[in-house]
């Protein structure tokens, strides 16, 4: 994406299948590769999975909802899940250089 485009931030909630069958489980390694690539490109800003493995929350930076759907269409798991997309008014995080390191 060129730097002169205005980007919005979107929160995506993905509801995963109640039971992971073999077919779905086989998609997970490629899903992680796609997500890691998008994280490195800073298209995905955050990616989180709940402990019950039922919900994914993804924060994506994009021009519009159509571009978000284009990104999500690259996910190997996309045909097996339910997706809800929300455009955010703002997205604040702690800058990477501000993280506090705890030495035990």
Q: What do you see in this structure?
A:
By secondary structure, the protein is of the alpha+beta class. The chain has one domain: Alpha-Beta Plaits (2-Layer Sandwich), CATH 3.30.70.1060. 26% of the residues lie in helices and 27% in strands. It contains two helices and four strands, in the order βαββαβ. It has helices at 22-40, 65-72; strands spanning 8-15, 44-49, 55-62, 82-87. Strands 2-3-1-4 form a four-stranded antiparallel sheet. The longest helix is centred in the first third of the chain and has 19 residues, at 22-40. It is globular and about 40 Å long. The relative contact order is 0.28.
The number of helical elements comes to 2
- Top-tier CATH class: Alpha Beta
| Percent of residues in β-strands | 25-35%
Gap from first CA to last CA: 41 Å
CATH topology: Alpha-Beta Plaits
Q: What is the string of SSEs from the N terminus onward? A: EHEEHE
What is the typical, i.e. mean, pLDDT?
91
Uncertain runs: none
Spatial strand sequence of the major β-sheet: 2-3-1-4
Per CATH, the superfamily is Dimeric alpha+beta barrel
Total E-strand runs? 4
Secondary-structure topology with pairs:
Blueprint: E1 8-15, H1 22-40, E2 44-49, E3 55-62, H2 65-72, E4 82-87
Antiparallel strand pairs: 1-3, 1-4, 2-3
Give me a quick take on this structure.
This protein has helices spanning 22-40, 65-72; strands spanning 8-15, 44-49, 55-62, 82-87. The chain has 104 residues and is of the alpha+beta class.
């Amino acid at each position: 994406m060129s730097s002169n485009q205005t980007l919005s931030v979107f929160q995506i909630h993905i509801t995963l299948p109640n039971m992971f069958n073999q077919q779905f489980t086989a998609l997970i390694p490629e899903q992680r590769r796609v997500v890691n690539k998008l994280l490195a490109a800073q298209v995905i800003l955050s990616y989180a999975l709940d402990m019950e493995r039922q919900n994914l929350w993804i924060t994506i930076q994009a021009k519009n909802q159509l571009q978000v759907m284009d990104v999500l269409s690259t996910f190997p798991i996309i045909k097996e899940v339910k997706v809800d997309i929300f455009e955010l008014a703002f997205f604040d995080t702690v800058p990477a250089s501000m993280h506090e390191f705890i030495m035990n």
